[in-house]
Amino acid sequence: MNEERKIKIEEVDTVDTPAKARVEDAASETGREPIAAPSPFEAESDRDKMERKKDYLEGFLAQTPSEDADAGSGDLREDVIAALKDIYDPEIPVNIYDLGLIYGVEVTDNAEAIVTMTLTTPHCPVAESMPGEIELRVGSVPGVGHAEVNLVWDPPWSPEKMTDEARLELGML
After folding, report:
1. Which stretches does DSSP call E strand in the chain?
2. At what angle do helices 76-84 and 130-139 cross, to 10 degrees?
């Protein structure tokens, strides 16, 4: 029962470009009305598009930042802590601040943020990347001029360092 299979090969010089799919075509095949109308910019000339872009750019450049845009709480240390609470441990679904990995947050008079932290274990899989991630995140807080992260192992981390919120989240209360 050995059936021989043959593959046919056809050589061609050119291939016609397939038609572009259109919403109207799909709607006519299903018998329903089109969901979306064609874009109003389809008939717009290149010159009109350029003018619209210039208007947009001029308006954007003319804007002045509002006083409260990304201003934070006004207390730079609290803003840094809020940023730290946005970083979660990759293995434990709790932020690193409530987990007790942050031992100290100091903000100097010249807007330098110094974070002293530890990890759950020296063999933590993110031991090399986590301090850098924290430094970048703290450095992006509005008002922080420079961020520094000091990784320490003494005192070692223990579950007692977690906040009550973290313990509740992990079912330890």
Report:
1. 102-107, 112-117, 146-151
2. 140
**Contact in structure between 141 and 76 (CB atoms under 8 Å):** yes
Give the range of the structural domain holding residue 146, as residue numbers without chain letter.
Answer: 76-169
Three-class DSSP category at 49: helix
- The closest alpha carbon to 163, from 72, 90, 82, 102, belongs to 102
- 3-class DSSP assignment, residue 27: helix
Mean pLDDT calculated for residue range 62-82: 69
Beta-sheet pairing, 146-151 with 112-117: parallel
Is 47 inside any structural domain? no
DSSP code, position 172: -
Entry pTM: 0.57
* Nearest alpha carbon to residue 149 among 139, 140, 157: 139
Q: What is the pLDDT of residues 77-111, one digit of tens each?
A: 999 999 999 999 888 889 999 999 999 999 999 99
Q: Residue 92 maps to which CATH number?
A: 3.30.300.130
Look-up: residue for tokens 């807080």? Answer: 141
